[in-house]
Amino acid sequence: MKINMYANDLKSAIKRISGAVDGKSQFFGYVTFVADGNILAVRAITAKTKTEIRIADVTIIESGCATVSIDDLKRMSLKGDMVMITTSDGKFSVGNDVKSYKMADSYCEDFSFKLPTFRPEEITCIYADYAESFLKNLAGINATRLEKSSSRVMEGFYLDAGNGRIATIDGHRLAVADIVENTLHLAEAAFTNGILPGEVYKILNSVAADGKIEVSFTPDGKHAYMVGDDFTILTTLVDGSFFDIEGLLAENYDYQVSIETDSMLPVAKEYKQYIGKDKIYDLKYPMVISCHNGSIMAGIRDERCQVIDKICDVSGIDDFFFAINPVFVIDALSAGKNDNFLMCGKYSHKMPVTIRTGKFKFVLLPININTNDSLLVDIIARQDK
């Protein structure tokens, strides 16, 4: 292999592809360069995903392939505008008259994969969006996803183009991003829903550049195919069915309250310090929210301290209260980044609470407390003054 190319293009490709490399795996910690025709393909694989970045602005003098450790590539500090890449005698060389590198070429056929191509009638794009917008959708609901779970369904992103949404769930909360405006060709597609593995978010966040991205499911319904202007990702879908979430998303609320984000988000962030580190699902002292006598107040306590805040005034709404993890409130309000959000639910303190902000909807399971809870009693006493 012999290639001339811009040094900055090579640096950018290495930085982008590094997010698609499983650095913890001795087997998958490599990047493969494939020079063929007028394109240099930079490829990486994990146990679930194959990723390719394409560089067109290169001069390929001799075609060829090379597989190099990502750790070796990341250590390079290239100088000059142009570099030449060559391979010879098991070595991968990069450099110019100013600076050069030589490292082991561990070329392996397994890494020189060629992404499959499909006839137009075999694969149908069901979701098209700008890569930045797609990533914002995934980022907004990423917190409501488990990194490791006995149920792999909870580790992934449920892309349900048929219902115009992407969803994640962790057993205590459900998050949904609305993608109705970006779905298309649903009647022509063999598959319109599937669970993307969690690593796709990390890979896309590293690989995706400006421009659009199109998402399709392969004809066998086992893989997702994501294509951008200069990259392609082929990932194996999580095996299994997502949870039936229609009941949780039903909008038969007893109350809907519009609240300024700036009146709730700083309070929830302050309350986070009272729940202890790494206390996400098993809380002894949750955040309590009470609507009573024309106002909404919130409070939290621990063994030594109690704090109560007024959130806003309300009218025409019956009394309600519930207890919740402040981290869940923070994640929901940080996703939408809107000036206002809707808090919706039933008057029963045991029923889920829904937060709607922008294109995101979060359904949160409350923490059970009694009506004689000392913090709740103190909050109501303040509201009665």
In short:
This protein has about 375 residues and is α+β, with helices and mostly antiparallel strands. Helix content is about 20%, strand content about 40%.
Can you characterise this structure?
The protein has three domains: 2-111, DNA Polymerase III, subunit A, domain 2 (DNA Polymerase III, Chain A, domain 2), CATH 3.10.150.10; 125-236, DNA Polymerase III, Chain A, domain 2, CATH 3.10.150.10; 251-383, Proliferating Cell Nuclear Antigen (Box). Helix content is 19%, strand content 38%. The chain contains eight helices and 25 strands. The protein has an eight-stranded antiparallel β-sheet with strand order 6-2-3-4-17-16-15-10. A hairpin with a 3-residue loop joins strand 12 (165-169) and strand 13. Helix 3 (131-141) packs antiparallel against helix 7 (326-336) and helix 6 (261-271) packs antiparallel against helix 7 (326-336). The radius of gyration is 26 Å and the shape is elongated.
